Each structure stands twice: as structure tokens, then as C-alpha cells.
Amino acid sequence: MEHMLLLFIFFIPTLGLANGAETEQDFTWHLKKIPQIVSKRTFSLDSPKFEAQTKLELNSVCGIECQRKLPVPSLSDLKDLLSYETVFENGTRTLTEVNVLGIVPDPAGNTTAQRSSRKKRQIYGTDSRFSIYDKRFMTNFPFNTAVKISTGCSGILISPKHVLTAAHCLHSGKDYVKGSKRLRVGLMKTKSRGDGRKRKGAKRSRREVSVAQEDPEVTTERRRRSRGGGRKQRRSGRQQATSDGMPSFQWTRVKSTHIPKGWFKGVSGDIALDYDYAVLELKRPHKRKYMELGISPTIKMMPGSMIHFSGFDNDRSGQLVYRFCSISDESNDLFYQYCDAEPGSTGSGVYLRLKEPDKKKWKRKIIAVYSGHQWVDVNGEQQDYNVAVRITPLKYAQICFWIHGNDENCTQG
Fold first, then answer.
1. Which is it for strands 278-282 and 162-165: parallel, antiparallel or unpaired?
2. CA 202 to each of CA 7, 193, 198, 199, 205: distance values in angstroms, whole numbers, following the listed order
3. What does the alpha-carbon distance between residue 330 and residue 20 come to, in Å, rounded to a whole number?
4. If I label 413, which of 199, 205, 286, 354 is the partner at 20 to 30 A Cα–Cα?
């Protein structure tokens, strides 16, 4: 039944209701001219301390009410907020200042729609999440684009060498979190017949030892296998893991990370969810299909105001969890929604499916980064939402620049 529902969600053409009649809507990816992010100069900084604790839930952030009052950032502000830090695998750090060209200011400023508040919950009503067990889904697009970050978050593949995730998975606003110094990304793979077996007397490499120390699930799995006395018992365990559809991970080292300066305290005055995104460059390219970036449309341009994302929720250890829901509110930079989610899924890529221009083909693109369950100010009180950071034209330009190293391939999105 679950498989049938997933097929319905992903492959039935989107229909809408207009004047009481069922008609196909014009839900299309509209190409937009993208501002240019140009590198101005780069400075060397002191190496980070890597002492911050990872926090998967934030509070005292600028929420719906605060967003309405924010002035439109000046060009000078944008240059400062979009400048970025890069940390390399050897612990060195740089700051790159940027110029922003071709931007068209938004005279409307930050706007949101008025909605009623809700009580604190991370699962809203009946838990509507789906654990993906079937390897036919798990190892194919779009689910295979989901990755696991060694600091406890999720992410999404956006190029053969790049992963998009949330900034707070790597940086607290003041310092880089523990574990981000030796950052790893776990790419899904289904357990095969030969997993976990080595020739008698074979030694584990340093890399295997390091990865096992950093990821508790890898350590637990290896201990379980070592306790299986005979060959028959070990084979039974492998078959059970495969039939259950539990993914294993191919862990890859991260070469460098990019985080916008707007995320850091002291620049924005406080943690700014608007800039809760980061890009990781992998040390080696993967061969999996990745998902392209898209400019986030407004709610009314989305089929049913619906978004989708998959991640590795902590309460379903070792499982890939998919969900979809409608957006409740939006500002220029954030989506406020009640998608059922738990810590561990933060950093997931939020996507939707629209038609390509002048084509009948539908295409999925990433339009936001799931920031997690956050407390925001609503009508003078702290209320909770599940929040996602929208990919605006400026953020698209910056992320595209991080991927390609220039703005030549980032003129439209």
C-alpha cells in the first residue's frame, strides 16, 4: 500500500481546481536572470577551535513577526552577508569578500501571511512520514540524492562533488562544531552479499578505523558482525539487513566547506535563519544522479503549496525517511511549515516538481534547505514551526558560484 501511495505522489500529473472545474494548472519552472556573485579578495584566518556543540533546535531567532519588520538589505549589507568562510580538511580557514552585481531590489521587503499559531510539536497530528525500505526507491532518484552528515544531520547531492546542508550542522554561529574538523558524508548504498567480509588475516585500513570511530552506526554494525559466531550466522544477518531495506553508507571525506558570513553572530547581531545553509565539497566525485538547484517560487506557484524532502530522522535510526506537506507561511527568505520531522533530518534538501519551460516533462529541483524545528516570534510570543531556508536568486547565485568557482554558469536559474 505504501508503495502505491508513493507512486501516486511521484508520478500522477498535478491537477488543480479552478472555478469548481478540474483543470491542469500552469506550474512551470520560470527561468530568472540571476545576480552575479564575484570574488573580490580572500584573506587567511586563524584555524577554528572546533569546540562548539551541535544544536539541532534553535531559539531566539528572527521569526515571522520579526521578518515583517526587517528593512530591505542595502547593497553594502548584501556584500557583507554573502561574503563567506571556507574551511579546508587540514583545518586552515579563509574569508572571501564578494561583490554583488545585477541585483534588483525588492520594494516589498519581507512579507508573510497571517496564520494562527500552534502548540509545540515536531510531529503534527498523525505521523505522516514514510520510511523507505524498498531498494528500488532507495537507490534511485530522487531518494538516492539524500546523504548523511557525520555531525548528525542530513544533506542533498547538488553536483558530482558538492552537498547542500544547513549551516548550523557545521557552525554554531560562534565556532565550528565538534566533529566538523574531520567531516564525512555518507552516501547511501544497499547492503550487498559481500558486505562486511574480509579475507582471513586482512587488516583494516586507517580510513576504515577513522570512519568507524566517527559514525556510531558503523561501529555498532561491525560489533554485531564480530559477535556472529559462524559463517551461517553472519550470512543470516546480512540477508536480514538487506530484506529490511536498511541502507549502509559509503563514507567520503570532505575537502572544504563554505558558509555565508550572514550566519555568523557579530555580523547579523544574532543567528539569522535566512543564511542557514552551507555547501560541502567532497574529496572525490561520486557517480550518482544529483538534484539541480531551482529558484524558490511563491506558495501560489506550487502544486497544492506542497513540498517534499527526505532525511535521516534520529527516531528512525538507519532509515531514510520521506515526507511531504503544504507550506503554512512564507517570507522572502523562509518557508514555515508543519512537515513531520525529527532531529537528524535537518539539512535535507526541500524540493518540488514543476514542468520545464516549453516542455511537457516534469522536473524536480531543490528550492530550500530544511533548517529544522525552530522557535520563532509570533504576535509577541515564541511559537514553533518547522522552517526551511528558501533558495532566492541571490542564494542561488552564491551556491552556484561555490559549485563552479565562477559566475559564467550561473546566469539563469
1. antiparallel
2. 44, 18, 6, 5, 9
3. 26
4. 286
- Residue of 100, 147, 119, 91 lying closest to 279 (CA atoms): 147
Stated length of the chain: 413
* 41 CB neighbour count, 10 Å cutoff: 9
Radius of gyration in angstroms for the set of CA atoms belonging to the chain, rounded to a whole number: 22
Residues 112, 330: contact at Cβ < 8 Å?
yes
Strand pairing class (362-378; 349-355)? antiparallel
The grid coordinates of residue 37 equal 556573485
Residues 234, 155: Cα–Cα separation, whole Å: 32
Classify residue 286 as left (phi > 0), alpha (psi -120 to 50) or beta.
beta
* Percent of the chain scoring above 90 in pLDDT: 36
Q: Evaluate if residue 202 carries a pLDDT over 50.
A: no
From CA 125, how far away is CA 133, in angstroms rounded? Answer: 23
Backbone angles phi, psi at 132, to 5 degrees: -90, 105
Residue with cell 564525512: 184
Which domains are delineated in the chain? Answer: 36-103+128-189+247-404 (2.40.10.10)
Q: What is the pLDDT of residues 312-322, one digit of tens each?
A: 988 888 789 89
Rounded Cα distance, 387 and 351, in Å? 14
pLDDT digits (tens, 9 = 90+) for 345-394: 999 999 999 888 877 788 999 999 999 887 766 667 777 788 899 999 99
Specify burial of residue 403 (Cβ count, 10 A radius: 0-12, 13-18, 19+): buried
Which residue bears the cell 555565508?
A: 260
Q: Is 77 left (phi over 0), alpha (psi -120 to 50) or beta?
A: alpha
Q: Is the pLDDT of residue 11 over 50?
A: no
| 275-313 per-position pLDDT tens digit | 999 999 999 999 899 999 999 998 888 888 889 989 998
C-alpha cell at 34: 540571476
Average pLDDT, the chain: 76
